[in-house]
Each structure stands twice: as structure tokens, then as C-alpha cells.
Specification:
single chain, 323 residues, alpha/beta, Quinone Oxidoreductase, Chain A, domain 1, 2 domains
């Protein structure tokens, strides 16, 4: 089978190669899946240089989540049959024609969405759900400010905010991306610089109740200036490249909280809540209440083009790598 393997941690994906590997055999409690589509996430790029918190032992197959069909069952597996459409993830191993994962890491693919959309759904929507519902306690009628809103985790936050009943203000650097966000359903769409006064104007001077920030850098700095009293500033990541800091007198005076969000770790620390989180987001997918946007479907053989699209911030939604 073909698989995209990271052999060395080097800039510009120089340590990444597409190679042939033996077809893996499922062990007890495991399932082999013939992958039809996998989702590209920003951490995949970071892992090629060893810049992500998860640092797998080299060499490793890249890719965090996938959708496909059950191909073979290991001993003791029940509940699945060959040909079943499933989705899953194992943090690595998804950019390959086949993957072997624990049966517990799989769930049935909702009929309402395609393989590409299903592969692109879990991580983004789980991040948005844990951030906004669990950590941010977003309430109906509150104002949510979503930065990096044209990315996969950003669009997911727009969807979750809409479902909760919040007023959603979305920001993006590109005028073309802002047009997409307006079509997507954000209540207000702003540039990602100089948004402070406009947010205050839209909220009657109060500021945003919850701010969802996967960007960091200057965006975080300006967000501190337009957050409401008792607001929650959610730290999702630092795609700008700069990890910001805040003088603690600002949260003190303005009465807001800075909250870190790691959706996967949240589920590991609180397993029961983690299961509830996963069940909640997939129920939305099964009911057709969410609409993950696929920017492009790129063949595995053209993986570098997909990585470059994400690195250059060209993507609105998610890129799916298809087998």
C-alpha cells in the first residue's frame, strides 16, 4: 500500500516521502480500514518539523483522521462487517491507502455527509465544541467573535456558535474569504486587523462575550481590547507564528478569563465528558445540522500541493486527501 511517511524532521517537508509499505494486518480488537479520504490538519504540517506537542517516533505515517470502508477484522471484533462505511482517527496513520486501528476508535459514517466531509469533521468540530460549549460556556444570545474563521476549526466554530444561538462575528484577512463567510451564515464579517472598534460598535460598547482564537499574535493582542466584562478568551492555537502574552492586570481590570483549549486532552482527562462531546457533534452530523466545507479534494500522490495550500492560507474550510 502507499503511505505518506515522515522519516526526518526537516523544513519544507524535506523529510516526507510517499512510499510503498506492506499491507498491515489487524490484531485482536483491531480493524483494517480501506481509506477513501483523509483530512489535512494544521498539526500535520507542524509534525513534519517536530513543532507539535505530539512527537511520534520516527518514521511515522502522517494524518490524523480518515473515512473509509471496513476491509478486515481482527479477533474478537464485533459490531462491524467488511464494507461498512466508517470514520476514525488515531492521531497518526491516516495518509495511507489502509490503516489498522482499534475498533473502539471507529464509528459509522453518517449517511448525510460524504467520505471527504466525514474525514474532515471530527477534529475541527470537536475542537469547536469543547472550546465553546465545555470551556467557554457560550450561551444563546451572547456574542461570539471567531478569528481565523475561514479555516477548518474556524468554520466549525461559526457552525457551533450558530447552533448554540449566539450572534457570530467572524474575521478573516482575505476579502474573498470574507465573502464566503457571509454566505456561510456568519452574522457579521470583519477584517482580522482593526476589528476592535467595530466589535464594540456591534455590541453596543460591551465587547464580545466569547472570543475563539486559533491565530494568536496581533489578533490576540487586539482581542484583549474588545472583550466584554466576564468574557472568555479561548486560546486554540498560534497559526500566526507568534505566541502572545498578556499582562495580568488586563484580565483583572476587565474581568475576563484566558482559557486554554486542547479538545483531545480534555477527553483524555475527563473520559465520560469526552464520550459525551463526541456523541454530541456526530449527532449534529447525522441530523444534517452542520455543513463541513471541503475546499479541495487532492489525490494522495499530489500531497505536497495540499500541504502548500494550507501553509499559504489558501484554504476556506478543509482539504481532503483522497486515495
Amino acid at each position: 500500500m502507499r503511505a505518506l511517511v515522515c522519516r526526518d524532521l526537516l523544513p519544507d517537508y524535506a523529510g516526507v516521502v510517499l512510499e510503498d509499505r506492506p499491507l498491515p494486518e489487524p490484531g485482536a480488537g483491531e480493524v483494517r480500514v480501506r481509506i477513501k479520504a483523509s483530512s489535512l490538519n494544521f498539526p500535520d504540517l507542524l509534525m513534519t518539523e517536530g513543532k507539535y506537542q505530539l512527537k511520534p517516533e520516527l518514521p511515522f505515517v502522517l494524518g490524523m483522521e480518515f473515512a473509509g470502508e471496513v476491509d478486515a477484522l481482527g479477533a474478537g471484533v464485533s459490531g462491524f462487517s467488511p464494507g461498512d462505511a466508517v470514520v476514525g482517527g488515531n492521531r497518526i496513520g491516516a495518509f495511507a491507502e489502509y490503516a489498522v486501528v482499534p475498533a473502539a476508535a471507529l464509528r459509522r459514517k453518517p449517511e448525510a455527509i460524504s467520505f471527504a466531509a466525514a474525514a474532515s469533521y471530527g477534529a475541527a468540530y470537536l475542537t469547536a465544541y469543547v472550546a465553546l460549549v465545555r470551556r467557554g460556556n457560550l450561551q444563546s444570545g451572547e456574542t461570539l467573535l471567531v478569528h481565523g474563521a475561514s479555516g477548518g476549526v474556524g468554520l466549525a466554530a461559526v457552525d457551533v456558535g450558530r447552533l448554540v444561538g449566539a450572534t457570530v462575528i467572524a474575521t478573516s484577512a482575505s476579502e474573498a474569504k470574507r465573502r464566503v463567510l457571509t454566505e456561510y451564515g456568519a452574522d457579521h464579517v470583519l477584517p482580522d486587523a482593526g476589528f476592535r472598534e467595530r466589535v464594540k460598535e456591534l455590541t453596543g460598547g460591551r465587547g464580545a462575550d466569547v472570543i475563539y482564537d486559533p491565530v494568536g499574535g496581533d489578533v490576540f493582542d487586539e482581542s484583549v481590547r474588545c472583550i466584554a466584562f466576564d468574557g472568555r478568551l479561548l486560546v486554540i492555537g498560534f497559526t500566526s507564528g507568534r505566541i502572545p502574552s498578556v499582562n495580568v492586570n488586563m484580565p483583572l481590570i476587565k474581568g475576563f478569563s484566558v482559557i486554554g483549549v486542547r479538545a483531545g486532552e480534555y477527553g483524555r482527562q475527563f473520559p465520560e465528558r469526552g464520550r459525551e462531546n463526541v456523541a454530541a457533534i456526530w449527532k449534529w452530523a447525522e441530523e444534517g445540522k452542520v455543513r463541513p466545507r471541503i475546499h479541495a479534494e487532492v489525490p494522495l500522490t499530489d500531497w505536497r500541493r495540499a500541504f502548500e495550500m494550507m501553509r499559504k492560507r489558501e484554504v476556506v474550510g478543509k482539504v481532503a486527501i483522497v486515495m
